[in-house]
Write a structure and sequence with these properties.
Layout: H1 12-18, H2 23-30, H3 36-42, H4 49-77, H5 84-133, H6 138-146, H7 152-165, H8 170-179, H9 184-199, H10 203-258, H11 264-288
Helix pairs in contact: 1-4, 2-4, 4-5, 5-6, 5-10, 6-7, 7-8, 8-9, 9-10, 10-11
Length: about 290
């Protein structure tokens, strides 16, 4: 509940008090967003779905009031009251954008957490397997992992170690860690550890098999990513290099016959479009890249 969220004007425990009048609307919207509860748990936001939705509604109303009133005062002093309708529409659009962003923010946190986990999962489990096979007790091995630089993996094991230190059994603590974790590979690995502990089989061999399985899956992901780069490179060549150069040449030749004038602003527009395309293309390539540290 101490987490701060972009575009929420106050800390969550304060915003929750202001958002109480919107709880009824929050309950209605909650029915069409059944996955929000799990998203909030996985993103470690200690709020009920209706409370979080109500905070999003309150924040959008708050920013609508601030933006519209500020622009209204400026328009009044600048004698531009004829643009009130446009200001109203722009304020409404921005408030809706803030509302949607706040609703999607838990999923954004989960995506970041998932990338950190997937990036360090293989190394963390391999380290854990080596320690277990060397005779280190499971609790001591988890303490060691929690103190090393494995990102979210170390944080997850640190939370698990604290629960075990308070008297919770290791299997229950591991299950709790797996239930709210967004990574399928991490959950599957922890559940196999739990099953191995309960059945009395060799935990070291179980972890070693898990590491081999995840390693093979990551190789498949890398090969799949490599096969996707070829059509992406072709698309970049067509839309980012060939089409603009040939298109400009064709328009220049066409303008010489038709008398259609090509101004400097036209070339600036093409340049802006190409820059936006470059950023979008880089984003597409990064989004498809598997979260694997090599």
């Amino acid at each position: 509940m101490k987490r701060t969220i972009p575009f929420v004007p106050f800390k969550l425990h304060v915003a929750r008090k202001f958002a109480r009048p919107f709880f009824g609307i929050g309950e209605i919207i909650e029915k069409v967003m059944p996955s929000l509860e799990m998203f909030l748990k996985q993103s470690e936001i200690d709020l009920e779905p209706r409370e979080y939705i109500s905070i999003a509604i309150f924040s959008s109303v708050f920013w609508f009031s601030i933006i519209f009133s500020t622009v209204f005062v400026l328009a009044y002093f600048l004698s531009a009251m004829s643009f009130i309708a446009i200001e109203l529409i722009m304020s409404s659009i921005l408030s809706v954008v803030f509302f949607i962003y706040i609703l999607l923010y838990p999923k954004l946190i989960i995506v970041r957490k998932l990338k950190s986990i997937e990036k360090n999962l293989l190394y963390g489990l391999r380290d854990l397997a080596v320690q277990i096979k060397s005779g280190v007790p499971l609790f001591d091995a988890m303490v060691s992992i929690s103190r090393k630089g494995y990102g979210k993996i170390s944080e997850e094991f640190g939370i698990c170690v604290k629960k075990i230190s308070t008297g919770i059994s290791s299997t229950d603590a591991l299950e709790d860690m797996a239930l709210i974790n967004p990574s399928l590979n991490f959950r599957r690995s922890i559940w196999q550890m739990v099953n191995s502990i309960r059945s009395g089989t060799d935990l070291g061999n179980t972890l070693e098999n898990v590491v081999i399985t995840i390693s093979n899956e990551q190789r498949i992901q890398i090969k799949k990513y490599g096969s996707q780069l070829n059509p992406l490179a072709m698309m970049y060549m067509m839309l980012g290099v060939i089409l603009p150069s040939l298109g400009i040449t064709f328009l220049i030749i066409l303008s010489s016959f038709s008398g259609f004038a090509i101004t400097t602003a036209f070339f600036w527009l093409i340049l802006i479009i190409l820059i936006l395309f470059q950023f979008a293309f880089v984003g597409i390539v990064k989004s498809r890249r598997p979260s694997i540290e090599v």
